[in-house]
Design brief:
The chain is an alpha+beta fold. The protein is built from 4 helices and 8 strands. The protein starts with a helix and ends with a strand.
Length: 166
């Protein structure tokens, strides 16, 4: 009886740790990718386990895949760049210019600076480089319940700016 229970528990843990799901999507909002019909959309490849959740890569709407991983970093001094120019291509110290373009001027300084964010670089064998940043804002509701809202941006080495949607 104990052996069967142990086997069932191990099977559940193994399945839970290895399962993959798709959630977040990156939609191009500026650059050549936004002008395509249909636009190239990246879907996060999320590995969900009992202990943690991590994004191991992205899959594009045209079937291409890129791999990389996230690291937790502290959002540092604003990095001013002109979107779509080679100096805005990844890798960057941070994507302050992308945050402000998508969420409004000053968003990076007022919401992210000094906070922990997830930052990742993802590459493909076809030469696509995608840099992604994610920020989770925890706030309290009227009944003092904690809520989390996720924000995300990305840039690639082809002059595109993406907004992450959950």
């Amino acid at each position: 009886m104990k052996t069967r229970l142990l086997f069932v528990l191990l099977a559940i843990i193994t399945i839970a740790e290895c399962s993959a799901a798709f959630g977040q999507k990156l939609y191009p909002v500026q650059g050549p990718g936004a002008a395509q019909t249909p636009p190239q959309v990246w879907t996060a490849k999320i590995k969900t386990g009992m202990v943690s959740e991590s994004i191991s890569g992205f899959v594009s709407s045209n079937g291409g895949a890129i791999q990389g991983k996230f690291a937790t970093v502290t959002a540092s001094a604003a990095n001013a760049r002109t979107l779509g120019t080679p100096e805005s291509y990844p890798p960057q110290a941070n994507l302050a210019f992308a945050w402000d373009t998508i969420y409004g001027q000053g968003f990076y300084l007022s919401h992210l600076l000094g906070n922990s964010i997830a930052q990742g670089a993802f590459t493909s064998d076809q030469g696509t480089v995608l840099q992604v940043e994610i920020f989770y804002d925890v706030f309290r509701g009227a009944s003092n319940e904690a809520f989390t809202k996720g924000y995300g941006v990305a840039v690639d080495n082809k002059g595109n700016l993406y907004k992450m949607i959950w």
